[in-house]
Structures are given as structure tokens and as C-alpha cells.
UniProtKB/TrEMBL annotation:
Protein name per its UniProtKB record: Uncharacterized protein
Pfam family, one: AA_permease_2
Any one annotated GO CC term: membrane
Membrane-spanning parts: 38-58, 70-92, 126-145, 157-178, 190-208, 228-249, 261-284, 314-336, 357-375, 381-402, 414-437, 443-461, 473-491
Chain intervals for the UniProt region annotation (Disordered): 1-25
InterPro entries for the chain: AA/rel_permease1, AminoAcid_Transporter
Originating organism: Pygocentrus nattereri
Domain of life assignment: Eukaryota
Record membrane topology: Multi-pass membrane protein
Subcellular location field: Membrane
GO molecular function: L-amino acid transmembrane transporter activity
Keywords, alphabetical: Membrane, Transmembrane, Transmembrane helix
């Protein structure tokens, strides 16, 4: 590791250029920056690959459990797809208006100011990303281990051990390798979905419709309207990942065209596939059987694909690895941008000289993920992470409305209808608010952890009360330990990391 020597400053202005854009436009390769290497196909693959992971193989149980019947659960799946598409289109406008990586953090910073942006960064690192990665890796572990013990339940300790191994199978090496990996895994995921959809729809076409009779009958003893937000949380969790591309805006080729196009293609594909997959599930299983299954795709395969049943868990496991890969590729970019703007330790703004990846941000996420894998349970983790995630997504689209009002002439290469933004924002706030009543323990804990970042912001960011000597010691100690981790776990002969930082916090638009 070496200390920063080169500093670059974003000039803002009407052109909204990033450091990476200006360096590339001039054809200079000597600058240390994230390269634009993500074209349309990898962009679509990153979105689909991040969305289609463990969700469609885990969430059907949560949606059905909280919606009360088969018909309403299918309606929830369709509405979650529409809502996610609305949100993705809002983020397409944000991504083409503010051409900086960082996703939620960047948009909150540009529209609502530093405090909401810092709280999003705080929540992401402390519990959102660890929780999300944990339940994806737990799904990976369950689908690897469960077939070995059927019809008996798999040992929880073994599931968690395999899940931890799955967390390690993510990228730190290069943007190109991560892109190629994601494209390959995305095609595998689509094949896995097709393997479920085709036999299910064929059975439905042959008249196997008994599981859809009285589909909207509700068991009044077990169902209450207050559980519906949790059904939406499970469904939206399965669609989660549509914002992944916004984390890496500075690495997308021609973002004005590729970001909206990739989002539209991806979300239409995913929504259609998800609804059809659930129809296929219910064609082969009753609602009660689905609720009893610990691995829905395995149960489906044992009935519909008897000759290929052993291959389905492998495909699902690879699907989970693709979701982990996409998440660990995108989220460290948000930490990277936060550090670059001065809202996070400078260590997270370091990128590898040769590989052009934010390696420290990736490595420093692992410990929290491993702790949550060891202690977590899938549906508790979903509710725990979803409250803050959707609260900040709603804040980001609210910020878009505020920004439109304050800066009506701001250039927007892609513009979403005003009504669509309002509908998405209001629905998100309603789901978030109702979930506090439905599951006060997990969602309340998520809210409390988010608000714990407020004193941190005022003590360490807005007016730092940390002595300069302590900050210097922390920086040097962090560099030392990261260097040791790099030497022990990776390849000792690689070039050290370097940092690309801004001299001052920069904004594309003025702030009050």
C-alpha cells in the first residue's frame, strides 16, 4: 500500500463530467480511475444477475405465508414487478442525470444533502449489505446441502458452513472478469428459470389446474391485512437488485443510452419470468406443500423433472453465486464514492492500480457478512434489511421530485413521467410505515440502527471532534492491516493499491 499522491477534482457544471469521463475523453491512460468497460449486454446481465438470485427460490414461501392464498400471492408477485420497474425507471433518470457511481448514496447526496446520504452509507455497511449477502448465501448453502439429506431436514450448521464458503466465491479481481462471470451466470439463471417454467406451463396447458381452484379463498384465522407489507417485502426482496447498475455508472459505456435500455429490458424479462415461475410452482404443488418445503425448487424438480431433479439445486446454487457476485461488485462502489466525497474513511476510496477495482471496500465487507451468516435466519434477515433499504429508496425518489422542483431546467437525458415517481414514492413509504406495525422487532431494530448514524455524522463528519493524530493513526493502521490481508489471502506479487480522492466534496447541483 502507498499513501495518496495524485488528487483529482470533479468540476461539476452543466456537463456533469466525472473524473473517469474526462480522463477517457482525453485518451489518457496514466490516471488511476475506474474504466468504462460495461456495455449493454454486461449491463443487462448485471441487473438480471443481481435480481435473479436466491429470491425466486426462497421468497415464494414468504409471499404465500403473508398473503394468505395462491391468487393473492400471484397478484403480489405481479405488483412487486410493476413497482420495481417503476423504481428502476426512476433510478434510470437519476443515473443519467448524475453521472457518478454510488447509486442511492450519490442521489441522496445530490438531491437531499449530506446527512441522508451518509445515513444510507452507514446503514449499507453496518447491516443492509451484510444482511442481503447473508440471506443469499444461506439460500446457496441450503440448495447445496438440502438434496443430500432429503427427505430429512439438512443440519443447520452444515448449511451455514457451506454458505460461508459461498460468500468467498465473489470477485475482487477485475471489472472484465466480473463482467464475464456475470454474463455466464446470468445465462445459467435464465436456463434454470426456463427449466421450471416450461414443464409447469405444459402441465397447466394439459389441464392440471386443481391447485388454482378457489385461489382467492382466505383463511381468516391465520391471515390479517397487516401481514401484506411483509408479503411485499418478500416479493420485493426477490426483485431486489434492479439498482445494481447505478452503483457503477462511471464504468458504463454510453450511460445515457445503456442505463435506461438495460433497466427496461431487464425488468420486463424478470417480471414475466417470476410470475410464470410461481404459476409453475403452484401447478405442481399446493399452497400447503409449498409452505412446508424448505427448498421450493428442489420439491418442484422432484415432481416435474424426475430425470433432471439432481441438476436443479446446482443451477439454483450458481444463481445464488451470481447474485452474490453482482452485489459485491456494485455495493463497494458506493463505499468507494462515499470515501471519495469525504463521508467515509479514505481507505475505502482506494482502487487497485492494475485491476481498477475498489479492493479494500470488497475485503472489508466480508467480516460483517460472516457474522450475520453465522447468526441469521432467512426471513428475519429479509425483514431486517428491507425496512431501511426501501426507506432510502423512497427518499431517493422523493429527492428526485424535490430536485425537479428546485432545478426545473436541469438537463435530464431520460425523464420519467411525474405521476410514476409519485406513485412509486407513496407506495414505498406506505409499505415501510406498515411494516413497523407488522414486524416491529426486526423493522424497529433496522430503524434504530439507521438512526444511530446521526450522532456519528455530527461528531465525525459535519464537525469532526476526532483528533488529527487519531485519524492519522487509524489511517496508517488500516493500511497496514489491509496490506497484510492482501499479502496473505491474495497474490503477494501484485501491485499495491492506490487512491483516487477528491480535494473537496463536490456536487453536480447547488445545496442549501
Amino acid at each position: 500500500m502507498i499513501k495518496p499522491k495524485h488528487y483529482t477534482r470533479s468540476m461539476g457544471g452543466s456537463q456533469h463530467e466525472t473524473v473517469a469521463e474526462r480522463v477517457e475523453d482525453k485518451g489518457k491512460d496514466e490516471g488511476v480511475h475506474l474504466r468504462r468497460k460495461i456495455t449493454l449486454l454486461p449491463a443487462v446481465s448485471f441487473i438480471i444477475g443481481s435480481v435473479v438470485g436466491s429470491g425466486i427460490f426462497i421468497a415464494p414461501k414468504g409471499v404465500l405465508m403473508n398473503s394468505g392464498n395462491v391468487g393473492l400471492s400471484l397478484l403480489v408477485w405481479a405488483l412487486c414487478g410493476v413497482l420495481s420497474t417503476f423504481g428502476a425507471l426512476c433510478y434510470a433518470e437519476l443515473g443519467t442525470s448524475f453521472k457518478k457511481s454510488g447509486g442511492h448514496y450519490t442521489y441522496l447526496l445530490e438531491t437531499l444533502g449530506p446527512l441522508p446520504a451518509f445515513l444510507r452509507l452507514w446503514a449499507e455497511f453496518i447491516f443492509i449489505r451484510p444482511a442481503v449477502a447473508s440471506y443469499v448465501s444461506l439460500a446457496f448453502g441450503r440448495y447445496v446441502v438440502e438434496p443430500l439429506y432429503m427427505p430429512c431436514p439438512a443440519p443447520p450448521a452444515l448449511v451455514k458452513l457451506v454458505s460461508i464458503l459461498g460468500v468467498m466465491a465473489v470477485n475482487c479481481w477485475s471489472v472484465s472478469l466480473a463482467s464475464r462471470t456475470q454474463v455466464t451466470l446470468t445465462f445459467i439463471k435464465i436456463f434454470a428459470l426456463a427449466l421450471i417454467i416450461v414443464p409447469g406451463i405444459m402441465a397447466l396447458a394439459q389441464g392440471q389446474t386443481e391447485n388454482f381452484q378457489n385461489a382467492f379463498d382466505i383463511d381468516t384465522e391465520s391471515f390479517t391485512v397487516s401481514k401484506l407489507p411483509l408479503a411485499f417485502y418478500s416479493g420485493l426482496y426477490a426483485y431486489g437488485g434492479w439498482f445494481t447498475l447505478n452503483y457503477v455508472t462511471e464504468e458504463v459505456v454510453n450511460p445515457n443510452r445503456n442505463i435506461p435500455l438495460a433497466i427496461a429490458l431487464s425488468m420486463i424479462t424478470v417480471t414475466v419470468c417470476y410470475v410464470l415461475v410461481n404459476v409453475a410452482y403452484y401447478t405442481m404443488m399446493t399452497g400447503a406443500e409449498l409452505l412446508m418445503s424448505e427448498a421450493v425448487a428442489v420439491t418442484f424438480a422432484s415432481r416435474a423433472l424426475q430425470g433432471m431433479a439432481s441438476g436443479v439445486p446446482i443451477l439454483v446454487s450458481l444463481s445464488c453465486l451470481g447474485a452474490l457476485n453482482g452485489g459485491f461488485f456494485g455495493v463497494p462502489r458506493m463505499l468507494f464514492v462515499g470515501a471519495r466525497e469525504g463521508h467515509w474513511p479514505a481507505l475505502f476510496s482506494m482502487i487497485h492500480l492494475r485491476r481498477k477495482t475498489p479492493l479494500p471496500a470488497v475485503l472489508l465487507l466480508y467480516p460483517l457478512v460472516l457474522v450475520m451468516v453465522a447468526r441469521g435466519e432467512i426471513f428475519q434477515l429479509i425483514n431486517f434489511a428491507s425496512f431501511s433499504r426501501w426507506f432510502f429508496i423512497a427518499l431517493a425518489t422523493l429527492g428526485l421530485l424535490v430536485h425537479r422542483y428546485r432545478f426545473p431546467h436541469y438537463p435530464r437525458p431520460f425523464k420519467v413521467p411525474f405521476a410514476l415517481i409519485v406513485i412509486f414514492t407513496v407506495v414505498c413509504f406506505c409499505i415501510v410505515g406498515m411494516s413497523l406495525y407488522s414486524d416491529p422487532w426486526n423493522t424497529g431494530g433496522s430503524c434504530a440502527l439507521t438512526l444511530s448514524g446521526v450522532p456519528v455524522y455530527y461528531l465525525a463528519i459535519k464537525r469532526s471532534y476526532i483528533p488529527a493524530q487519531w485519524r492519522k493513526a487509524f489511517s496508517e493502521l488500516s493500511l497496514y492491516f489491509l496490506n497484510q490481508i492482501y499479502v496473505l489471502l491474495l497474490i503477494p506479487t501484485q501491485l499495491p493499491c492506490h487512491t483516487l480522492m477528491l480535494e473537496h466534496r463536490t456536487y453536480s447541483t447547488p445545496h442549501l
